[in-house]
Amino acid sequence: MSAAPDVLSPATLGPLTLRNRTIKSATFEARTPNALVTDDLIEYHRKPAAGGVGMTTVAYCAVSQGGRTEGNGIWMRPEAVPGFRRLTDAIHAEGAAVSAQIGHAGPVANARSNGTTALAPVRFFNPIGMRFAKKASADDIDEVLADHAKAARFAVEAGFDAVEIHLGHNYLASAFLSPLINRRTDGFGGSLANRAKVARGLVMAVRRAVDQGPRQIAVTAKLNMSDGVRGGISNEESLITAQWLEEDGGLDAIELTAGSSLVNPMYLFRGDAPLKEFAGAFKPPLRWGMRMTGTKFLREYPYKEAYLLNEAKLFRAELKLPLILLGGITNRETMDLAMAEGFDFVAMGRALLAEPDLINRIARDGAGVRSACTHCNKCMPTIYSRTRCVVTGAPD
């Protein structure tokens, strides 16, 4: 058995060679007030790039106006390309690669804020937007597939090195995968094979678009291992979906995630549940509703390092595809553990939000480094204003 690779050593990801095996995960930035790239967004990603990560991930780049989570979010279109080019140039100047997370929010989309109808596997009420999502027709699904292909082409044009297809957190593809949400009785509902058609179709649409492009970029996906919700996506079904995605040959890696943005977001984040701060981010009556029933939405799970590792090991045992471990990775020991368990990359969110130069500090000072992140999760409600760490103030 070969020795585990050094997490700070170069690694290949599809056609890319990253300078190390660390990735800044996609965390919604709320720094695009006009739905276009700003200097603020560029600086948000330049800092972790200068701080040593192998690749940073821009989130969330919707594939269409209606696919955004809210009205200030970027969607991939010609007007966005020049700004994205400035962003990718800035990241490359720091020696890092940069990925665009692309996807369709589906039932998570705030239809009122977006100014257009949301889509879902079935007619679905979103309390944040106070609007019903439309049951997606076969034509709607075809349009979403085409939008993903166009988004990938825009990403290539803008200088991105990779795209990450969002198949998690009960966004559109994940909502189709969920037996709890997807109660359809047509060819997109019922069996897992039917429910997985959208996710598999999106991946292959992106792969074909990338392969036909003027240069090659990596294609990855963020996939829920489980929703953390009774009746939702389970490890067993998700593993089958992952095996199908591997067999289809459209992906260079999978980033393993968990939790539902609709029902149970804390299953992904772990640590403190900042109910007061979340309530304060909304206007009445949502503020009152959050205060009264928020504990059902923001359930508390104790934080520990590598908290998704046990679930992820089920996937590592069955898949040959490179895998990216996410969840509770803040120090060198945990990174080394991920490498020893056979994972190819590690993804970090809150730790890099608190401390963009964490990777350089780990490279310099080694095993004794401890992250400044306290897992208070008070950064989470800032996604409704301007995402930041409220403990350290970085990146500001």
UniProtKB/TrEMBL annotation:
<keyword id="KW-0285">Flavoprotein</keyword>
<dbReference type="GO" id="GO:0016491">
    <property type="term" value="F:oxidoreductase activity"/>
</dbReference>
<dbReference type="GO" id="GO:0010181">
    <property type="term" value="F:FMN binding"/>
</dbReference>
<dbReference type="InterPro" id="IPR051799">
    <property type="entry name" value="NADH_flavin_oxidoreductase"/>
</dbReference>
<keyword id="KW-0560">Oxidoreductase</keyword>
<protein>
    <submittedName>
        <fullName>NADH:flavin oxidoreductase</fullName>
    </submittedName>
</protein>
<feature type="domain" description="NADH:flavin oxidoreductase/NADH oxidase N-terminal">
    <location>
        <begin position="9"/>
        <end position="247"/>
    </location>
</feature>
<dbReference type="InterPro" id="IPR013785">
    <property type="entry name" value="Aldolase_TIM"/>
</dbReference>
<dbReference type="InterPro" id="IPR001155">
    <property type="entry name" value="OxRdtase_FMN_N"/>
</dbReference>
<dbReference type="Pfam" id="PF00724">
    <property type="entry name" value="Oxidored_FMN"/>
</dbReference>
